[in-house]
Amino acid sequence: MYERKIPLTIDCGLHLTREVLNGKWKPALLKAISLDIKRPSQMLRLLPDATRRVLNVQLKELEMHGMVEKKIFPQLPPKVEYSLTEIGWSLMPIIDAMDQWGDANRSFLETVITQDPKITQTAKSACLAYGQITIERKTG
Amino acid sequence: MYERKIPLTIDCGLHLTREVLNGKWKPALLKAISLDIKRPSQMLRLLPDATRRVLNVQLKELEMHGMVEKKIFPQLPPKVEYSLTEIGWSLMPIIDAMDQWGDANRSFLETVITQDPKITQTAKSACLAYGQITIERKTG
DNA sequence: AGTATATGGGATAAATTTATCCCTATAGCA
DNA sequence: TGCTATAGGGATAAATTTATCCCATATACT
């Protein structure tokens, strides 16, 4: 599989949280699930820049960390649904705050981020559907 | 220097924010600065698991992203002080929420995180001083 | 003269995260 | 039969992030 060689820093709450949210698509996945997008195929459509593989991997990590639960329906073709656990829900205020902060400062952030010479291109196709999603969140 | 080869995903606010906070020590650095720990040498002492090099690199990124400002005093040996910009301050509610969430769920998180077979060791020496810091935050 | 303090950054190796590719399984439909 | 939809995961390459090492500056102190 692969074994970590450097001790994981879990000194303060900040680092513990960082570990849970650390993954290119994890925040987006949590938000998607909170918006009732629970099937992997739906998430993949919502996040077209992500590959099926990464989403699988990151969902599994979120599951191992206890943030989401996976329900497998014994059907064919397979059907799976993810949902947030209680502790997973408790992360939503943070996720929402991050999303709002980023949106509120979009023009400034795009400017400073893209002015970095390392950045030669950006992708914007993902998450576009968020704005169109008007589904109410269910509590728990 | 090095040039990014894959387009940076900046579709939704979540990803923009992720980009700004993405770095092993960035959240901790922002918090430290907000607590009036403004000199690099102090930050290094606060975060003993980080190397001087990484802190330099991540501070520079935070600066380029407009989250912190750097004031250089024309002295020798050199003296430098960082401070949060207005937009940098606006991140603090998120940073604080992350820190509090992590602390509030520490025992659970430590359990699930260390149960991962990839993780063979953890480091807890950093940030320990936070608890002892009772300095009031100055506004702006 | 040697040592400590402070800060910055180049070069390069190592570690970790993502991306790619490919294979598995089965029902349903043209 | 051949193709689509669904979901999972191994193997391996590539990309990106961190870690290590080392050099530079200049003052003050022993």
TrEMBL record, chains A, B:
Any idea which UniProt keywords this protein has? DNA-binding, Transcription, Transcription regulation
- Which species is this record about? Xanthocytophaga flava
InterPro entries attached to this UniProt entry = HTH_HxlR (IPR002577), WH-like_DNA-bd_sf (IPR036388), WH_DNA-bd_sf (IPR036390)
Superkingdom in the source lineage:
Bacteria
Record-linked SUPFAM superfamilies: Winged helix' DNA-binding domain
The record places domain HTH hxlR-type at: 12-110
What is a GO molecular function of this protein?
A: DNA binding
What protein am I looking at? Helix-turn-helix domain-containing protein
